[in-house]
Write a structure and sequence with these properties.
single chain, 281 residues, alpha+beta, four-stranded antiparallel beta sheet, 9 helices
């Protein structure tokens, strides 16, 4: 059927209108795709390891992302150009913490570890954020200890691997709770686990299971400090980690024991991975 001329004109206009609108949408999508991306997992890993290095070795897989973060900090006059080098050392940590404070954050939210919200804001118009991670909400474990949901899920998986329940002696977010902890429990991701009733082999097996799912975990003995036998575990890449716990996870990557003496790691040898890497294995 042949349409009248006026109907044909209306139909042509209707067909052209969506096309014109659609032509703008791909352009916007192309603009977004043109932005480089920051791998948050790699960036947070570098922010834990690099400040603990004795040299300027870069964290594998993190350089491109760290450079994007450092350039953004530099352009906000928070980081001198000479420190824009892909190395997330103490100077970059301090600059990022200052940036977090400029957003109105304080305490754990200004600990120098990139959080999902602050990193996204820093990248507005500059970069996108991929592999975003976060600690989740705070919850109370069955032992009455406060932890976050990421830590809870990690512990549950470690228990599954071990085949027994793990009892917490101390949880997270416990500033000033135990002076022998040296501030490691002030933030998230850190727990002390009871070894009561465990043999030496079982203690080691528990530490191994914790390491497999993404904890920096060690069996602690009375010979090492003013504490009873227990297992100390810090969830790698928990963005709520206190500064002291950040140092422990960095030292773990560098083959150290997580104590002030920085002696060689005395725990079971496993492939070091984060919780997110464990889930993708």
């Amino acid at each position: 059927m042949k349409l009248p001329s006026y109907a044909a004109a209306l139909l042509a206009a209707a067909l052209l209108t969506p096309l014109a609108g659609a032509s703008g949408a791909p352009a916007r999508a192309a603009d977004a795709k043109a932005l480089p991306s920051v791998d948050m997992e790699a960036t947070v890993k570098a922010a834990q390891i690099d400040p603990r290095r004795a040299d300027d070795t870069l964290t594998p897989g993190a350089k491109a992302s760290v450079l994007l973060v450092e350039r953004a900090l530099r352009d906000r006059n928070l980081l001198d150009d000479r420190w824009v080098d892909g190395y997330f050392g103490t100077t970059t940590i301090a600059a990022y913490a200052e940036y977090q404070r400029s957003l109105g954050y304080s305490g754990l939210d200004a600990n120098g570890l990139p959080g999902r919200t602050s990193l996204t804001k820093l990248g507005a118009g500059r970069f996108t954020v991929t592999r975003a991670i976060g600690p989740g909400a705070r919850v109370t474990a069955g032992d009455g200890a406060v932890i976050n949901t990421r830590t809870r899920d990690m512990l549950a998986e470690a228990e599954r691997l071990l085949g027994r329940r793990l009892v917490l002696e101390q949880g997270s977010y416990n500033p000033g709770g135990d002076p022998t902890s040296a501030g490691t429990h002030d933030g998230g991701g850190v727990v002390d686990i009871s070894v009561e009733g465990m043999s030496s082999a079982t203690r080691t097996a528990a530490a191994r299971a914790l390491r497999r799912v993404g904890f920096a975990a060690w069996v602690r003995s009375p010979a090492q400090g003013d504490w009873p036998w227990h297992i100390h575990a810090a969830a790698i890449s928990d963005t709520d980690l206190s500064t002291q716990a950040q140092h422990q996870t960095g030292d773990y990557y560098l083959g150290l024991n997580g104590l002030a003496d920085r002696k060689p790691d005395d725990g079971p040898k496993v492939a070091i991975r984060t919780w997110e890497e464990y889930q993708r294995r």
